[in-house]
Design brief:
Blueprint lengths: L6 E6 L5 E2 L15 E5 L1 H7 L2 H4 L31 E3 L1 H7 L4 E5 L9 H14 L4 E5 L3 H13 L2 E7 L4 H9 L3 E5 L3 H15 L2 E2 L8 H15 L7 E5 L4 H16 L8 E7 L4 H7 L26 H10 L3 E5 L1 H15 L5 H15 L9 E5 L7 H4 L1
Parallel strand pairs: 5-13, 6-7, 6-9, 7-8, 10-11, 10-13, 11-12
Antiparallel strand pairs: 1-2, 1-3, 4-5
Bound molecules: pyridoxal-5'-phosphate.
Length: about 400
Amino acid sequence: MPEKSFITHLECGLCGRKYDPNKLWNLCPECGKPLLARYDLDGARQALSPKGLESREPTLWRYRELLPVRDETFKLSLGEGYTPLIRAFRLEKEIGHSPVFIKDEGLNPTGSFKARGLCVAVSRAYELGAKALSIPSAGNAACALSAYAALAGLEAHVYMPSDVPKPFINECRVLGAQVHLIDGLITDCGRAARADLEKYGRFDVSTLKEPYRIEGKKTMGYELAEQLGWALPDVIIYPTGGGTGLVGMWKAFDEMEKLGWIGSKRPRMVTVQSEGCAPIVKAFHEGKEFAEPWPNAKTIADGLRVPAAIGDFLILRALRENRGTAVAVPDSEILQATYLLGKTTGIWPAPEGGATLAACIRLKKAGWVKENESVVLFNTGNGAKYSRLWD
Ligand SMILES: *Cc1c(COP(=O)(O)O)cnc(C)c1O
């Protein structure tokens, strides 16, 4: 059986209009919302089975039929994905709940799960002829773009807040990217990046502003199911910034059900944000479809410092359809939980990973997480580059 991508078209997440997947697209030209990739899942079901995955490479390309890249030549790889799912026995004793698993995304190339999204987005942009790529980032996405652009030989332009910790800047420079430092937040970086896009003919790979970062991130959902023997946990706690990972996993679960790989039961998904920047939490509890921009966003968890997310309605939909919830925790609890996670698991977590533990402790106390329910915490990055936090 030839191995090929079963992508059929792109579809707007809001208005549902369809687009040709063999051209470069950013947002829906009609309504300005994110486009999502759709696949011939009946065809994919004939071509691939869970059994057939067993002998494949331990990277996200093991799910290549469900990814958008058509030609082998453009599948860039630095060993991204297929990260361990670790049972946290000592942490379980500490917090009085079991079972708890950590999905350790800090082991990805460039130290965060941003590698998944950018691996697939850069590969596909490369295949479709882009030459120069541009991204606003709190740090991790910039490093990931720099890495895959270096591998492909494409130009990378990264726009980061000027207060980003130095190790992120250093890494981007070593990987050959053009670094632009902006006084302000990620939204200001986005504005600066946009101003240069047309002028220099660059392709924008911002979160959810092109359709394929989410395809890379959805592989976290496929992996969870595969690693748990084609079952899903009761609860997933996810540190939410732009929301690609959360929306991506929700998409993966729907695809896997249509592929016949899992049943209809879904994990309850939890968005965790910092009290200093919690637009999704606020909108969720107010019953809104869209989130309002958060004024004066401030948190030690840089990946969560996203005052406005273009995919807000998709995140909120995913939470509501999965009977999930949204929790805001103060930075003091995030930091405490980051250390607790570290000393009980041997993983040096990013503060965003620590935030998931802080939320877990709160939800357990509130009785939302019940006795014996399986919980997966996403440690989305390695803590090493957050240099200011540990000094
Ligand atoms: C970007 C980032 C997040 C937020 O991820 P989204 O999928 O965009 O919500 C969380 N943690 C870390 C470490 C990040 O770099």
